[in-house]
Amino acid sequence: xxxxxxxEMGFKFFDFEFDKDGGFTKHYxxxxxxxxxxxxxxxxxFEMLLLRYDFSKATVLEKDALQYVKVKLDKGDVYYITSPDxxxxxxxxxxxKRKPVVDIWMKDYKAGIPDSLYIEHKKFTFNIxxxxxxx
Length: 135
Prior knowledge:
There is one protein chain. The chain is mostly beta strands. The chain has one domain. It is built from one helix and ten strands; from the N terminus they run E-E-E-H-E-E-E-E-E-E-E. It has a seven-stranded antiparallel sheet with strand order 4-5-6-7-8-9-10, with helices on one face. It has a three-stranded antiparallel sheet with strand order 1-2-3, with helices on one face. A hairpin with a 6-residue loop joins strand 6 (about 75-80) and strand 7 (about 90-95).
């Protein structure tokens, strides 16, 4: 699976590939962003978004009319927060028991697919927003 981020004019920011065996390849990263910490952060963000974890030991919780699927990681947990009927993934949250580190929101679902995506990091200013390309 490839993830390529560009702006409206076609300027490419990065191009990553995730293979089915858990591998990761950085095909391109614009020079100003090409730092080990940035690549690592983006990789982790998109692994959360692409559901690249082992869900066999996940636990399901319910709170405030939402379902929370909790996946335990080596450091912290990832929560997949869905509507009660699991038709919409409302939010993904990564963090510890005390506070979130990353929030990912999906909004404006059309035919089961979100139209927009927003990734917000809590410890430092590094946010990403994206909208579906319309033909």
